[in-house]
Every structure is written in structure tokens, then in C-alpha cells.
């Protein structure tokens, strides 16, 4: 793992969590239980701090940072999609931040809210709980339905299972140069999640 001390502050990462070796975690960062951090993610606690609570996931190429003196908080079960940027914001419990979304300084995303892919949430915007937000700049367009929330919860559960699975089966290897004749790839049954209405 690319874990770095900064100004004599060492990140704290619960042993049940998984941080990809190609992610970087720097300085004043606290990562709770069953958190997944994907490849290319950068979590930088140099100007301020980052608290990532239990059950969160920070997917590939996400960036988390802040202005001086600010603490970025991801509450329990927050789900940060591929390539999202969280800069000095607060992300509520069981919230989904879509792929490529940008959440700016002092914005607050309420519990169980959904922020759409590529959405730009400007500084100091307050998104109430269980609202759907889309666009650039962000607009609240509707409430999060029970079906949407169930879909989000099921998707987050998949990521909460990954740290343990990765700890058992993830390892660096050399590639094969041919496809083995007997290669069969079996995946878990994700039908429950795939069939939930979005």
C-alpha cells in the first residue's frame, strides 16, 4: 500500500479494510471498518483531515482533499463512484456519489441522497436527506424512492464484501499468454442487485 506519514501524522486504517496498493493515503486520514479503496484513489490529509467511516467505498481514481483546516467526513456506508472528487465536503450516511461527480468545499450531502454521475455540486450547497441531485450546476430533481435506496444499499453491500475477498485472493501475478482451454469463470449471483428498480 502507498501509505505515507506527513508532518509526523500516520494514517489509521482498520485491518478489516482494503486499500489497493496503487492508491495513496497521506497523513491525517482515518479509515474505519470494511472500507474499500480502489486503485488510483488519492486520499490526502495534509492541509486538513479525512475521516472515512465504516462500510464506505472510495472507488478507482477518486480524489479526496480539502482547504487548510477542514475535515472531510464520509459517514457510514457512503458510496463514492469511480473518478469522483470530494473537496472539503461532508458526505452523509448511506449516500451515493455518482461516477465523475465533483462535490466542492463546505457542501453537505444529506443522508441517503443520490448525486448523479458527472454532477457538479458547488461550494456550500446543502442537499437535504433522500434527494436526487443532477446536473452542472447541481439541481435537486426529486426524492429518493425506496426502490432507489434499496438498489444503492445492495450495491454498497457488494463493496463491503470486497475487503475480505481481496484479503484472501488478491495478489500480484504474471499474465498468462493464452486462454486455458478449460477456463471457466464463475461469478456470484448478483441478480438481487441487478433486478432492483433504479
Report on this structure.
14% of the residues lie in helices and 33% in strands. It is α/β, with parallel strands linked by helices. The protein has a single domain (2-143), classed as Hexapeptide repeat proteins (UDP N-Acetylglucosamine Acyltransferase, domain 1), CATH 2.160.10.10. The strands form 2 sheets. Strands 1, 2, 4, 6, 8, 9, 11, 12, 14, 15, 17 and 18 form a 12-stranded parallel β-sheet that branches. An 8-stranded mixed β-sheet has the order 3-5-7-10-13-16-19-20. Strand 19 (131-134) and strand 20 form a beta hairpin. The model has no long low-confidence stretch (mean pLDDT 94).
Number of strands: 20
Helical residue percent band: 10-25%
CATH class: Mainly Beta
The separation of the N and C termini measures 35 Å
- Provide a count of the helices: 2
Write down the overall mean pLDDT: 94
Oligomer: single chain
Q: What CATH architecture would you give?
A: 3 Solenoid
Structural class: alpha/beta
Instruction: Write down the CATH topology.
Output: UDP N-Acetylglucosamine Acyltransferase, domain 1
Order of helices and strands: EEEEEEEEEEEEEEEEEEEEHH
How many whole angstroms does the radius of gyration measure? 17 Å
Largest sheet composition? 12 strands, parallel
The fraction of residues in strands falls at: 25-35%
Shape: globular
Number of domains: 1
